[in-house]
Structures are given as C-alpha cells and as structure tokens.
Amino acid sequence: MRLGFFDGDPSKQLYGKLGPKDVCTPQNQELAREAARQGIVLLKNSAGSLPLSPTTIKTLAVIGPNANVTKTMIGNYEGTPCKYTTPLQGLTASVATTYAPGCANTACSTAQRAATGFDIHLPGQQQLLVTQVANASKGPVILVIMSGGGMDIQFAKDSDKITSILWVGYPGEAGGAAIADVIFGYYNPSGRLPMTWYPQSYADKVPMTNMNMRADPSTGYPGRTYRFYTGDTIYTFGDGISYSLFKHHLAQAPKQVSIPLEEGHACLSSTVQVH
C-alpha cells in the first residue's frame, strides 16, 4: 500500500479492478503457505530427528493446546483468512495421528506475571506437559512453539529427550500445512530468529517500561537487543539451522577498481556497481 493508491477514480488505480474473484485464489493460498514455511525457524535438531519419514511412521502423537486451534496461528492483528489448516490437520494429511490437548483439567495457556516483570517461560503447565511427554516418548520429540516473541525454553534446549525445536511465530492460515511441510522434509527450513531470546532472569531484572537500548553499568541495567546486550541468552538474533550444512565466508574485493578508457573518451564520470 502506498500514498496515492486511493486518490481519484479507484478503477484507474493499480488495484482498482480487483474484485471478489481475486480473493482466496489458489495462488494466494499457496503464497500464505510459502510465507509460513519461510518464517519457520529450526532451533535444534539432534541426529535422527527431523525430518520425519511419512512412509515409516505408523502413528504420530500430536499433543498440546495449540495443536488443533486456529486463534493462536493468526495472532491478534489479522485479516479474514480464506480457510485454516491447523497443525493437526496438516500432519494428518501425511500420516495417521493421535491427538490430545494435553491439559484436560488445567488451563494450558494461562500466562503468569512475575513480581518485577513477566514470566517468559511456557505459559501455565506447558513446560510440565512437554517434559512429561518427552520422558514418556520412545521416539524423537519435536517441540513446536507458536509465539510472538522469545521464550525461556532452556529446559528444552538442554534436554536429550527433546530432539528438535521449531519456532513458527504466528504462521497464519496455512500454518499447519507449513509446519507439516517442514517436519516431513517437504521443505528445508531456512528461517532465522528476528529477535534475541532472553532467560527469565533478564525479564526479572529489566522493567517492561524501560526501553533504553544501551547498558548502564552504574545501575546494573544490561541493555537490550543483540547490539548492546552481552549477557546470557537462550537463543540469539539470527539463530536458525537447516537440514543442509552450509559454509559461509566473507567475499573479498579490491578497494580500488581501475577502468581503462581510450584516450579522448567523452565519458567524464561513471558509476560502477559491485554486488
């Protein structure tokens, strides 16, 4: 959306001729799925875990309060989706599943406020639920987190029982299909965290109302963001792995590039682009 899109005769504007037939097209629905896939971040993947093979799995247990809901997928700032695909529906499209919300008699998603900040552990009884499921499982355990920000999941990061961790953010209407695409290896995850994930001790120390970026040693304020905070983290800005191994190196280029011109050439100035 840009300034001027609604000026004058709407039918003469760039998108002025769009109508109901242009809503929820197959191309747009595939775009929603692709956007969700690209946003998924693989934070942990032990050997022998992801991707799962849909041809060898007999039954997949899908457990948790967000496994078959749509509200969490779209967050709190959204349009009207064409249709929803929950994680359970996405996974069931490839393998047989057994589903349980996990907290039959307890509110799984009740957040708690700490004395000086906010509790950034998994809400309610979810950490206990994850731990008990992991201890009972005889196969790989994949933790899928839907959230709008970082969580203190040090327990899962350190656990040998929890073999993989995926952060999917708020993946939107096609989030369930995208999650299944990654879990079964139809799509190789390449997302990276857009924020640092802090430990609970950070949330206890830093008031939510203090948005100063730089650290202040005189008051013990640790600073914010990857640019200024140097303390312990759960995961850092830019973290994320893939099913493939990559080697990165910094490309080098000469500081000065000479372009020989014929004598008497009329060109007095030239812009050279290096990408």
Automatic annotation (TrEMBL):
Pfam family, one: Glyco_hydro_3_C
Annotated GO MF terms: alpha-L-arabinofuranosidase activity; xylan 1,4-beta-xylosidase activity
Domain of life of the native organism: Eukaryota
Gene Ontology biological-process annotations: arabinan catabolic process; xylan catabolic process
Sequence ranges assigned to domain Glycoside hydrolase family 3 C-terminal in this UniProt record: 40-243
InterPro entries: BXL, Glyco_hydro_3_C, Glyco_hydro_3_C_sf
Name listed for the protein in its UniProt record: Glycoside hydrolase family 3 C-terminal domain-containing protein
Organism: Nyssa sinensis
Lineage: Eukaryota, Viridiplantae, Streptophyta, Embryophyta, Tracheophyta
